[in-house]
Amino acid sequence: MTAVVIDGKAFAAGVRARVAAHVARLREEHGVQPGLAVVLVGQDPASEVYVRNKGVQTLEAGMASYEHKLAADTSEVDLLALIGQLNADRAVHGILVQLPLPGHLNADLIINSIDPAKDVDGFHISNVGLLGTGQKAMVPCTPLGCLMMLRAHHGSLAGMSAVVVGRSNIVGKPMAQLLLGDSCTVTIAHSRTRDLAAVCRGADILVAAVGRAEMITGDMVKPGATVIDVGINRVARDGKARLVGDVDFASASKVAGAITPVPGGVGPMTIACLLANTLTACCRAHGLPEPEGLTV
Ligand SMILES: NC(=O)C1=CN([C@@H]2O[C@H](COP(=O)(O)OP(=O)(O)OC[C@H]3O[C@@H](n4cnc5c(N)ncnc54)[C@H](OP(=O)(O)O)[C@@H]3O)[C@@H](O)[C@H]2O)C=CC1
Ligand SMILES: Nc1nc(=O)c2c([nH]1)NC[C@@H]1CN(c3ccc(C(=O)N[C@@H](CCC(=O)O)C(=O)O)cc3)C=[N+]21
C-alpha cells in the first residue's frame, strides 16, 4: 500500500484564510484587532523555525504581532514583570512564551503567570484542567492541529485505537486528551514502554511526538493506519541540513493508509492553530461570537 499524504501545508493555508476573513470582519464591524505577543528568551535552535514563520503569518492574518526578544540571562523577576504588563495590555489577546526556557527560569511558574484567557498555547494549569474535564479551554496548538487533520480525514474517530508516542505536557498528554475526547481508545507510550513496536502496531491512529529522528519505522505501523508525525528534527543529509520527523517516512508510507510529511505536515498546522487561538481569545475578551470550527 502507498499512503495518502495529508497535506498539512494546504490544510493550514485553509485555516489561516478562515482566520484572516474573520479578523477582517472584526476590524471592520467592531474596530477590534487581535494581537499576539511572543516572548523569546535566549536562542534555542529548535525554536528558530517556529519564530520565523510565526511572525510573518500573524501579520498576514491581519493581526498585530508583538515580539519580545530577551537575553538568555534575563531574570525570573524581569520576565514575570513583562508577562504582568502583557496580561494588562488590552491590545494583547494572546501571549506565547517560547519553550524551552533557559535552565535558570522555572517554566511552570512563568507559564502559570500568564492570564489563562490569553494563554494561546493552552499550557496554563487552568487550561490543562479545563481540557482534562471536557470544559471550554484554550487548546494546545500542535495537538489541536493534529486533531483537525484527523477529523477531516476520518470524520468520526469514535472507537478507533489511538497510540500517542510521547508524554510531554506540550504535545503527548494534550494529544491523548483530545483523542479521548473524540472517543478513541487511547494508549500513551513513552521511553519506558515495553515492546513499543507491538504497541504501535495496534494503532489505527499513530501519533509520534518523541523528538528522535525517524525512529518510527514501517514495521511498527499497522497496515492502513493513519500516522501523524509531530517530530521536528534537524539532521545532516548529504552534507546539507534537513528537517525530518520522528517517523521514517520512506518505510512508514509503504504501510500506512495516510501519513503527514515533515516538513509540510503538523508544523504549519501548529501556527495556523496559534492564530486561530489568538482570534478565539480576542472574541472571548470582547464578548463577540467565536469563529466556528476553529477549536474543539
Ligand atoms: N510540529 C510542531 O508543531 C511541534 C513539533 N515538536 C516536536 O515534537 C517532538 C516531541 O516534542 P516534545 O513533546 O516537546 O518532546 P519531549 O522531549 O518533551 O518529549 C519526548 C517524549 O518522547 C518520549 N521518548 C523519548 N525517547 C523515546 C523512545 N526511545 N521510545 C519511546 N518514547 C520515547 C519521552 O519519554 P519519557 O517521558 O519517558 O522521557 C517523552 O515523553 C520534537 O521533535 C519536537 O521538536 C514539538 C512541538 C511542536
Ligand atoms: N510555547 C511554545 N509553543 C510551541 O508550540 C512551541 C514552542 N514553544 N517551542 C518550539 C516548538 C516547535 N514548534 C514548531 C511549530 C511549527 C513549526 C513549523 O512551522 N514547521 C514547518 C517548517 C518549515 C520550514 O521552514 O522548513 C514544517 O514542519 O513544515 C516547527 C516547530 C512549536 N513549538
Automatic annotation (TrEMBL):
Swiss-Prot/TrEMBL catalytic activity: (6R)-5,10-methenyltetrahydrofolate + H2O = (6R)-10-formyltetrahydrofolate + H(+); (6R)-5,10-methylene-5,6,7,8-tetrahydrofolate + NADP(+) = (6R)-5,10-methenyltetrahydrofolate + NADPH
Lineage of origin: Bacteria, Pseudomonadati, Pseudomonadota, Alphaproteobacteria, Rhodobacterales
Pathway, per record: One-carbon metabolism; tetrahydrofolate interconversion
Membership in a protein family: Belongs to the tetrahydrofolate dehydrogenase/cyclohydrolase family.
The protein's name in its UniProt record: Bifunctional protein FolD
Domain Tetrahydrofolate dehydrogenase/cyclohydrolase catalytic stretches: 6-121
Pfam families noted in UniProt: THF_DHG_CYH, THF_DHG_CYH_C
Stored HAMAP family: THF_DHG_CYH
Tetrahydrofolate dehydrogenase/cyclohydrolase NAD(P)-binding domain location: 140-284
Residues that hold NADP(+) according to the record: G166, R167, S168, I232
Keyword Oxidoreductase: yes
UniProt function note: Catalyzes the oxidation of 5,10-methylenetetrahydrofolate to 5,10-methenyltetrahydrofolate and then the hydrolysis of 5,10-methenyltetrahydrofolate to 10-formyltetrahydrofolate.
InterPro entries linked to this entry: Aminoacid_DH-like_N_sf, NAD(P)-bd_dom_sf, THF_DH/CycHdrlase, THF_DH/CycHdrlase_cat_dom, THF_DH/CycHdrlase_CS, THF_DH/CycHdrlase_NAD-bd_dom
Protein's UniProt keywords contain NADP: yes
EC nos: 1.5.1.5, 3.5.4.9
